Amino acid sequence: MKSEKLLEAMNDLPEELIAEANTRRRHPLVRIAAVAACLVVLLVGMYPFLQSFQGLGTSDDCYVSDREVIYRQGAIYEVVGTNYTAAMERLALPETITEDLVGEKVDVAPDYGDVYQYAPLAGRNGTAPAALYLLRRTDEGHEGEWWYLAFTGFVAGDESGHVEAETMLQVYGIQSADDIAAVCDRRSGEQLLPPEAFYDALLASSAWGREDFAERVDSTLNAYAGAVGIRLETDCGLRTNMTYYPEIGFVKWFDSFYQVGKLL
Question: Which secondary-structure segment (H or E) carries 97?
Fold first, then answer.
């Protein structure tokens, strides 16, 4: 039947028959197939996120953008080559990894190489993951090269992101205020307050995970008004960034929020 005649015949169908066809339920297999298709799309979209929790892989939009990462001891580490200028500057790392920086071998990273302590932090971190490790690569194309493994955040433990301030300080080898070289404005480099005052306030603070913070802080408040970027520098040269929200008296450090009150 030609298309013109087919269309004409369809126009002549009784209205009640058309209404019945429109209200007829889909076959269950059709609905199941539709749900399965949605799940496939969802899993494909989540793959980069899932991959970053398998120990090795890349993370497109989670913790480290377009960088290779390693999962170790409940923390994510960014694989940083000495030619990554921005990361080197952010972390204040030596451009050349010399023999005196290499501590004991502590692990093996599959597909990458051998993991060593960063000697200036050896013995200063307690039970917390270290802020920095060294990686002697054995993979093809990088044999014998020394790279950094830089702490990027926690992924294990409290699902809300809650980490006590004492643990975070230990990650950077800070066991007392004497281990802090400076607490500066992240943009200008201006000293914001004495290390002792900042250390005491952070250590005495109550720690909230990101979920608790979102639930308990009044949504009507302009909580992020007047935010101040803070750069904490350690006596062994490492740096880490935080954000202080003076309106509500909180410091955000990675995914945790610390209620410190009035600092500045």
Answer: none
Element (H, E) at 243: strand 239-245
- DSSP code at position 121: G
By C-alpha distance, which of 144, 163, 139 is closest to 153? Answer: 163
Amino acid, single-letter form, for residue 82: T
Q: How far apart, in whole angstroms, are the C-alpha atoms of residue 151 and residue 160?
A: 19
In tens, the pLDDT along 159-213 reads: 667 889 999 999 999 999 999 999 999 999 999 999 999 999 999 999 998 888 8
The helix/strand/coil state of 176 is coil
Q: What is the pLDDT of residues 55-112, one digit of tens each?
A: 443 333 333 345 788 988 888 999 999 888 888 888 889 989 999 999 999 999 999 9
Q: Phi and psi (nearest 5°) for 56?
A: -140, 150
**Shortest CA distance to 229 belongs to which of 246, 247, 242?**
242
- pLDDT digits over 38-57, tens only? 444 443 343 333 333 234 43
Helices (H), 52-145: 85-91
CB 238 within 8 A of CB 92: yes
Rounded CA gap, 129 and 93, in Å? 18
Read off the pLDDT of residues 217-255 as tens digits, 9 standing for 90 and up: 886 678 888 999 999 999 988 999 999 999 999 999 988
The two structure tokens encoding residue 15? 């209205």
C-alpha gyration radius of the chain: 27
Q: What would the two tokens of residue 188 be?
A: 């200008």
At position 58, the amino acid (one-letter code) is: T
The residue with tokens 């990894």 is 97
